[in-house]
Design brief:
Layout lengths: L4 H10 L4 H19 L2 E4 L1 H16 L11 E5 L26 H8 L3 E6 L33 H8 L5 E6 L5 H7 L2 E4 L19 E6 L2 H11 L29 E5 L12 H16 L3 E5 L7 H16 L18 H12 L2 H14 L5 H21 L5 E5 L14 H5 L6 H6 L3 E8 L5 E7 L5 H15 L2 H9 L4
Parallel strand pairs: 2-3, 2-4, 7-8, 7-9
Antiparallel strand pairs: 1-3, 4-6, 5-6, 5-10, 9-11, 10-11
Length: 491
C-alpha cells in the first residue's frame, strides 16, 4: 500500500526518504497504468523531478520545506497553474497557459508539495462520470469498464491508482464527493468561502468550492488546513480565522448526535442501491457502537435539491461562460461573415454537448418571462433547504447519508441527462446550503465496488465533521465488525 501524505512528508523532512525517490515511485505507477486509466491531461515529469530535487537540497541544507515536504499531488485541470496548460478538458481552452497561479496552488507549493500533473474532468466540470471530457474519458482503477465518477474523476482516479498521494478537485454539486465514493477514496467539500476560489475557472460561482482527495481522513484534514483561510483576492472568502480540524481526529464520537437523513435512505427517492443503503446504515451502527446517539431525521426539502440545482447552476454557467466567445477568451474559428458568425462558429467548435445543453438551459431559465417561474423559484427552494438543514442541526451535530446512490457504473449506462443527474441527489443539498460534507469509503456494494458514506455538518462545522469521519474510517478498517452488523440486519 502506498504511503500517505503525512507519512511521506515525515520521511522526507527527516531524511529517511528522498523527495526524488518518492516521486519516482509515483511516476513508475503512472508509467504502468496511466495509458489505460487516463487520469491526467498533462503529466509534468520534468518539472516534478526538478521540484523534488530542490526539496532534497533544501532538506540537506537543514531548511524546513513545509508540511507537505515531497508529497506528490495532482490538480484538477480547472485550477490555474502559471505557464502550465489549464484546459478544463475543453477544446475551448486547449493549450491555454495561465499567467498566474490559483491561491490553492500557491499554498500547496509553499507547503512543499510536488505537482505531478493536471487531471482530467468533465468539460468545465459539468458531469458526473468524466465521460464528457474533450480529451477522452477517465477509467475507474477498480474496474476499467466503469466510470470513476465526476466531474473530478481524474483526481479521484489518480489518488485511487497511487499516481499521487493526494489531489485537489472542485465541487459544485458533488464533483469531489461522488467520484471519491466511486473510486474508494476520501473526498471533502468545505464550507463555502473557507477555501479561496481565486484561480478556479468558474462554473457556478455561488456553488463552486475547491477541496481535497486523499486515501485517508488524516491526509484530507491536513490538506484542508493548508488550503483554507482568508484570501483577499476572493470576495467570497470568509474573513476570519478558521478552526483547526486535525486535533479532532482522535476524539471519538461519545455523546455526539448523528442524524440519518430519512429522505436519502431510499424510501422517498428512487435509485439507491440496497447495498449502498446497507453500508450507510452499517456505518451509522458503528457510530452508535462507539457512543454516538444515532437517529433518523427529516430534511424535507432535500428532495427538491436536484431540481433547484439544475436551474441555478446552469443559469450561473451561462453567465460565466459567456466570456468564451473567441474574442475575449477561448478558441476562435476564423472566416465568419461577421463577428456574430465568428462567435457562433467558435462556440460550436469549442464547447461539447453537455456544456451547450447547460448553457441553453441556464439562458432559458434567466430569460424574460421565465426568470421568476424558474430561476426565482429555484432560489426560493434553496432558501427552504438552508432553513431545513438549520432545523436539523438544532438537534444533531452531524448528518449522515449515502454519498452516491450507486457504485461505479459502466460507461454509457446513463446516457440520458436525467438519469445521469440523479447521481448527484445526495450531494447537491450541501452545495445549495454552502455547508461542508465529506465522503468516506465504507465497505463495498454491488460487484465488490467501493461505497462512500457522506458526513454533513453545519457551516464551519469541519472539526466535528472530521471527528465523525475519522471514526467511520476506523470502523471501516474492521471488516469483521461491518460483516457482523450486516448479518445481524442492523443495516
Amino acid at each position: 500500500m502506498s504511503r500517505t501524505a503525512v507519512e511521506i512528508a515525515a520521511a522526507v523532512a527527516s531524511g529517511a526518504a528522498s523527495a526524488v525517490s518518492i516521486l519516482e515511485e509515483h511516476l513508475a505507477r503512472i508509467d504502468e497504468r496511466e495509458a489505460e486509466i487516463h487520469a491526467f491531461n498533462t503529466v509534468l515529469t520534468d518539472e516534478a523531478r526538478a521540484q523534488a530535487a530542490e526539496i532534497d537540497r533544501q532538506v540537506a541544507a537543514g531548511h524546513d520545506v513545509g508540511p507537505l515536504a515531497g508529497v506528490p499531488i495532482a490538480l484538477k485541470d480547472n485550477l490555474c497553474t502559471r505557464g502550465i496548460p489549464t484546459t478544463c478538458s475543453s477544446r475551448m481552452l486547449e493549450g491555454w497557459r495561465p499567467p498566474y497561479n490559483a491561491t490553492v496552488v500557491e499554498r500547496l507549493a509553499e507547503a512543499g508539495a510536488v505537482l505531478v500533473g493536471k487531471t482530467n474532468l468533465d468539460e468545465f466540470a459539468m458531469g458526473s462520470s468524466t465521460e464528457n471530457s474533450a480529451f477522452g474519458p477517465t477509467r475507474n482503477p477498480h474496474d476499467l469498464s466503469r466510470v470513476p465518477g465526476g466531474s473530478s474523476g481524474g483526481s479521484a482516479a489518480a489518488v485511487a491508482a497511487g499516481f499521487s498521494a493526494v489531489a485537489l478537485g472542485s465541487d459544485t454539486g458533488g464533483s469531489i464527493r461522488q467520484p471519491a465514493a466511486l473510486c474508494g477514496v476520501v473526498g471533502m467539500k468545505p464550507t463555502y468561502g473557507a477555501v479561496s476560489r481565486y484561480g478556479l475557472v468558474a462554473f457556478a460561482s455561488s456553488l463552486d468550492q475547491v477541496g481535497p482527495f486523499s486515501r485517508d481522513v488524516a491526509d484530507s484534514a491536513l490538506l484542508y488546513e493548508l488550503i483554507s483561510g482568508h484570501d483577499p483576492r476572493d470576495s467570497t472568502s470568509i474573513p476570519a480565522t478558521l478552526p483547526s480540524v486535525r486535533g479532532h481526529l482522535d476524539r471519538g464520537v461519545e455523546g455526539l448526535r448523528v442524524g440519518l437523513i430519512r429522505e436519502l435512505l431510499g424510501e422517498t427517492l428512487d435509485g439507491f442501491e440496497p447495498e449502498v443503503l446497507a453500508q450507510t446504515r452499517a456505518a451509522a451502527d458503528t457510530l452508535a457502537a462507539a457512543g454516538a446517539i444515532v437517529d433518523e431525521v427529516s430534511v424535507p426539502s432535500t428532495i427538491y435539491g436536484l431540481s433547484a440545482y439544475y436551474l441555478i447552476a446552469p443559469a450561473e454557467a451561462s453567465s460565466n461562460l459567456a466570456r468564451y466567445d473567441g474574442v475575449r477568451y477561448g478558441h476562435r474559428e476564423e472566416g465568419g461573415a461577421n463577428t456574430a458568425a465568428m462567435m457562433r462558429a467558435s462556440r460550436t467548435a469549442g464547447f461539447g454537448p453537455e456544456v451547450k445543453r447547460r448553457i441553453m438551459l441556464g439562458t432559458y431559465g434567466l430569460s424574460a418571462g421565465y426568470h421568476d417561474a424558474f430561476y426565482g423559484k429555484a432560489q426560493r427552494v434553496r432558501t427552504l433547504i438552508i432553513d431545513d438543514f438549520a432545523k436539523a442541526y438544532e438537534n444533531f451535530d452531524v448528518l449522515l447519508s449515502p454519498t452516491s446512490p450507486c457504485v461505479a457504473f459502466p460507461f454509457g449506462a446513463k446516457s440520458d441527462p436525467l438519469t445521469m443527474y440523479l447521481n448527484d441527489v445526495a450531494t447537491i443539498p450541501s452545495n445549495l446550503s454552502g455547508q461542508p460534507s465529506i465522503s468516506v469509503p465504507f465497505g463495498t456494494g454491488a460487484h465488490g465496488l467501493p461505497v462512500g458514506v457522506q458526513v454533513l455538518a453545519p457551516l464551519l462545522g469541519e472539526p466535528v465533521m472530521y471527528q465523525v469521519a475519522a471514526q467511520i474510517e476506523r470502523a471501516a478498517k474492521e471488516p469483521l465488525l461491518q460483516e457482523t452488523l450486516l448479518k445481524e440486519g442492523r443495516s
